[in-house]
Design goal:
Layout: E1 3-14, E2 19-20, E3 23-24, E4 28-38, E5 43-49, H1 53-56, H2 60-63, H3 71-77, H4 82-100, H5 104-107, E6 115-123, H6 143-157, E7 161-165, H7 171-184, E8 192-196, H8 203-213, E9 221-222, H9 228-235, E10 242-244, H10 254-260, E11 265-268, H11 270-273, H12 276-289, E12 292-295, H13 302-313, E13 322-324, E14 347-349, H14 362-375
The protein binds magnesium ion (MG).
Length: 411
């Protein structure tokens, strides 16, 4: 079994104007899709955030001709970032598992669960003037609007865990949103609520917010502040668990966190840590250290969502519902055949088909690639660094939004 063909394609897909501490998501998200074919007739696909084609392409010469089952040596050979490797590894695993006749999670040692629970990833947001989103296309610019969005997500997908993407407004607004959300979705009915302001609070603010939120029993505080040390300071003042995909997001951060004890729950992500197998390794580290394991998500299309699904299914240590952006992916914006993967009761079933269980729709991908060439979104296309409420989108899209008066907050 040898790779006979490698294709690396950038894709741009419509995104909604979601707000976070950095600004607003652009109207297009950029993903890189890796596809391989083997000489014995199997295919594999992987997906990476952003445009990573220039990082993956230099590995073409040795990848073509490689046996996709030789994954450890391929990882050692790969010259590039963990995110770029993750897309390649996913494609290798997809093809190798197909050849073995097994779903990826079973091919890599067997599943710990047949379905995976996910969290509703909720944002303050502008109304989507393009109006083609699958869910919550209206504005959510205050706590009441935020709760409405949560109701839509819970009604449509059945999520039991709710994540507040905070940090865009003053912390008092986030506290009020949390209070209203908790009132509407009580813990006694099985709902868990977490909040992530992307590290824009000082330690003092984090302590104040934690004290205010304790009565509402947050599941965890995700990256309230910056460093492992700052979270360790916060933990002296509250029993609410801390979580991170920012200050603990790579193997190099594990030892400092072990020494300083700032973060209780790791948000694993095969894109950040370097593949589905690395996600399993993150699980082992969490078991050894007594940390919790959750999942991070960023703008996934169907191939990434399937890869996350298999990573989560194959990792017994996962003990929180993982984040997923996937509901924000439009039905006609995805690149897989047969429509989007479906949530039921807040969970997604692991497909029984060999490999990832999804196939790239080459026509849809070609369209998304044309969109990428036409729109030329920035590499980090989902964030705009400055924000001006009076600015208008260019050509009816959100691309080109320019908010010159916006500064990343520090509360
Ligand atoms: Mg986060």
């Amino acid at each position: 079994m040898k790779i006979s063909k490698l294709k690396v394609t950038q894709a741009a897909t419509h995104d909604q104007p979601l707000l976070n501490s950095t600004g607003v998501h652009e109207s297009f998200r950029v993903r890189t899709i890796v596809q391989i074919e083997t000489d014995d007739g199997f295919t594999g696909a992987g997906e990476a955030p952003h445009d990573l084609a220039s990082i993956i392409e230099p590995n073409r010469d040795w990848l073509v001709g490689w046996d996709p089952r030789q994954i450890t040596k391929a990882r050692l050979n790969f010259n590039g970032t963990p995110g770029a490797w993750a897309a390649v590894e996913t494609a290798l695993l997809d093809a190798a598992a197909k050849q073995a006749g097994m779903p990826v999670c079973d091919y890599i040692g067997g599943r710990a669960r047949d379905k995976v629970d996910w969290a509703a990833y909720l944002f303050y947001k502008f109304a989507d003037e393009n109006g083609v989103g699958e869910v919550a296309t209206g504005a959510a610019l205050d706590p009441e609007g935020f709760v409405k969005q949560a109701e839509e997500f819970v009604d449509k997908y059945g999520f039991k865990a709710l994540k507040i993407k905070g940090g865009f407004f003053h912390p008092d607004v986030d506290i009020e949103t949390f209070r209203l959300l908790r009132k509407r979705f009580p813990k006694s009915e099985g709902y868990e609520i977490r909040i992530d302001p992307n590290a824009v609070w000082t330690v003092e603010t984090s302590i104040r917010v934690a004290k205010e939120l304790e009565q509402y029993e947050p599941q965890y505080l995700e990256d309230p502040t910056d460093t492992i040390e700052m979270h360790a300071e916060l933990k002296k003042h509250t029993d609410i668990p801390t979580a991170s995909n920012m200050c603990v997001s790579a193997f190099a951060h594990v030892k400092p966190n072990a020494q300083l004890g700032g973060i209780d729950v790791i948000l694993g992500d095969h894109h950040h840590w370097g593949g589905i197998l690395a996600y399993k390794e993150t699980g082992v580290l969490c078991r050894v250290m007594g940390w919790g394991l959750s999942g991070h998500s960023n703008n996934s299309l169907g191939v990434s969502q399937a890869a996350m699904l298999h990573a989560c299914a194959a990792t017994p240590e996962l003990n929180y519902p993982a984040d997923t952006h996937y509901p924000w992916t439009d039905e006609d914006g995805d690149i897989i055949k047969g429509g989007k993967l479906q949530f039921k009761d807040g969970a997604m079933e692991v497909p029984d088909k060999p490999g990832l269980g999804v196939e790239v729709d080459d026509d849809a991908l070609a369209e998304r690639h044309e969109q990428f060439l036409r729109e030329k979104p920035e590499n980090r296309a989902d964030m705009i660094l400055s924000l001006d409420p009076d600015a208008k989108p260019r050509d009816g899209s959100w691309t080109g939004y320019n908010f010159p008066n916006y500064k990343k907050p520090r509360w």
